[in-house]
Design brief:
Order of helices and strands: HEHEEHEEEHEHHHH
CATH architecture of the largest domain: 3-Layer(aba) Sandwich
Largest sheet: 7 strands, parallel
Oligomer: single chain
Shape: elongated
Strand order of the largest sheet: 3-2-1-6-4-7-5
CATH class of the largest domain: Alpha Beta
Strand content: 5-15%
CATH superfamily of the largest domain: SPOUT methyltransferase, trefoil knot domain
Bound molecules: S-adenosylmethionine
CATH topology of the largest domain: Alpha/beta knot
Radius of gyration: 19 Å
Number of domains: 2
Length: 229
Amino acid sequence: MPLLPRRFERLKAVLNHRMADLTVLLEEVHKPHNLSAILRSCDAVGVLEAHAVCLEGRLPLFNTTAQGSQKWVPLQRHASAADGLQTLRQQGFRLYGTHLSATAVDYRSCDFTGPTAFVLGAEKWGLSPAAIALVDQAIMIPMSGMVQSLNVSVATATLLFEALRQRQAAGLLPSQGEGVGPERYGRLLFEWAYPEVAAWCRQQGRPYPPLDAEGAISEALPRTVRLRY
Ligand code: SAM
């Protein structure tokens, strides 16, 4: 079925608000309901992509809590925390480790308007010593109850929405796709609109065909590919 113009407008509206400079790195967060809730918060805030370190041979699993958000927020996997943190550092991110320690500062005292990566730890163990040693700043959400920590997905949402709040207050929220960049924007829009055609193009090693103003593919494609719309 061809893409409806209304659907195309919705895809653009979401992509217009995505931010490539806000992300999370999850270190061995494996429970499907937590991973799912985290990606759903990422999608809601406008995170372009998330990162995860998974135990060897273990694939990230999602459940209905995600509401399909794993389709809209890709999860980049890394072999180790060191790999993931180094990759993000090279991309210019400031790394905020969530760790309840004496050196951790209240998250509300930090400036998350620049490139920001929140590093979150496993449900049971928290962040590994290796990850703690590599972050730029330890942060915590103050707790005053009987239980020492929050659920990891709740902590993630709290931090992401604080970053969103700060960026909004500073007038830094993207609204026209400037948080993604033109080349990546065009590529993602095509992949979101026509995932199967995009997969076929990649397989064939050919560029994605152009889209017209209403989101229709403005190039003749083989009939078998057209059936995949
Ligand atoms: N016993 C673990 C520890 O000492 O870190 C608790 C892990 S907690 C259930 C799972 C993750 O949620 C933590 O690694 C951290 O990323 C995040 N988290 C939970 N509560 C937090 C808080 N108050 N401040 C910042 N991060 C928190």
